[in-house]
Amino acid sequence: MANAAQQTAKKVENAKFNSNFAAWVIPTCIAVGILIYIFVLGNPSNFEGGVVGGHPIAEGAGHYLGLVYMGGYVVPILLSLVLINLTVAIERLITISAASGKGSAQAFVSKIRSLLGAGNVDAAIKECDIQKGSVANVVKSTLVKYKEMENEAGLDVDQRILAIQKEIEESTTLELPMLEKNLVITATLASVSTLFALLGTVLGMIKAFSALGNSGAPDSAALAVGISEALINTALGIGNSALATVFYAYFTTRIDTITYAIDEAGYSIIQTFAAKHK
Asked: What is the C-alpha separation between 110 and 264, in angstroms, rounded?
């Protein structure tokens, strides 16, 4: 009971962290993105003559930093989105890796099935403690209910099977939301980054066409700045959107693998109990 209480308390603590994650990560990344734009990209050493916003130096890392700075005021927004995307991806990678457990989920499920077939429920529970992760948590709570139902004489077989099935559903309901948490941010970034890229592109093209619209000879410098701004914003936004799409697909695939392992383990436990108590 004490161990179960500790696990519940730990889940509540993790839930609080995950629920507050977006609240502090998003504003922090926005602040960092603005600071990078001002003090790193906008460093005077990145521009000829030390004039911020002038022509970027001829070569080296400073040339590219100065070039990105020329993308205008949409750049710090896009940098913030990139930072948010990377931060959420790291957090999800850590969380989902921990949820996957220490070994292969499929090998773990096979071992549990073998131990249950031999009637060794206690060894199966110990295996859950070794494996850890979401699959192991669901299986362990189900096996505890399994043992309880084996000694429950007041219920018929169908009622005991229903109780085990209910335990699987409740345990799964506690585990899965933690895996899917914050993925909505990644999914949103995939589309929002493209929209901000389009905004930066439009603003850059407005500058470019304004340079063409001047009376007399077109201002070639202003024209070049406008086109550069448009292309820099396009590259940043589309690149971050592509990255977010890849992250989302990768994490949802891993979550599906965990979910499948939970379903497979639950089915095996119920089938084993039903076969032994016909």
From this structure: 9
pLDDT at 167: 94
Is there a contact between 112 and 124 (Cβ–Cβ < 8 Å)?
yes
Q: Is 29 within 8 Å of 87 (Cβ atoms)? A: yes
Task: Decide if 97 contacts 38 (C-beta within 8 A).
Answer: no
Query: Which residues have C-beta within 8 Å of that of residue 156, sequence separation ≥ 6?
Result: none
Q: For the segment 152-210, what is each residue's pLDDT rounded down to a tens digit?
A: 878 888 999 999 999 999 999 888 888 888 999 999 999 999 999 999 999 999 888 88
Q: Which residues, at least 6 apart from 94, have a Cβ–Cβ distance to it below 8 Å?
A: none
All structural domains of the chain with their residue ranges: 82-276
Give the mean pLDDT of 107-131.
Answer: 92
Residue 167: CB partners within 8 Å, gap ≥ 6? 141, 142, 145
CB-based burial of residue 7 (10 Å sphere; 0-12 exposed, 13-18 middle, 19+ buried)? Answer: middle
In this predicted model, what pLDDT tens digit does every residue of 211-255 receive, in sequence order? 776 655 666 777 787 888 899 999 999 999 999 999 999 999 999
Amino acid identity, residue 115?
L
Tokens matching residue 246: 């890849």
Q: In which residue are the tokens 């206690």 written?
A: 122
138 with 172: CB under 8 angstroms?
yes
